[in-house]
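Shipment paperwork, digital attachment
Item: protein structure file
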Amino acid sequence: MDNRPISDLMETTMQKMRDMIDANTIVGEPISTPDGITLIPVSKVSFGFAGGGSDFSQKQEHKSGFGGGTGAGVNITPVAFVVAKGDDVEMLYITPPASTTVDRIIETVPEVMDKIGEFLNKEKE
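Attachment content:
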């Protein structure tokens, strides 16, 4: 297959996207606090890419009849922090406040389960 100018455009755009997005974009550099807590940011990355082109017939032999373009968009959204202190590691999610009563109840289920587990462990002792 002949190499077309659109291939060069698309390859350049994809390489620029690869340069911007790497593993450190999703899982950030650890941040250490003076009291021994380490925070590691976690982000969601989404992107889109489009490209197109066309060859036009030319009346003159040595003129290029190509028109084309490419584009890309990237969205990086922080979603959580991994919090580590000593041997304890926890995921702290960044979420918008619950908008309905059902959402609020669903958010509290993990806390309730933890408290029930703590209560049962105390009863066994």
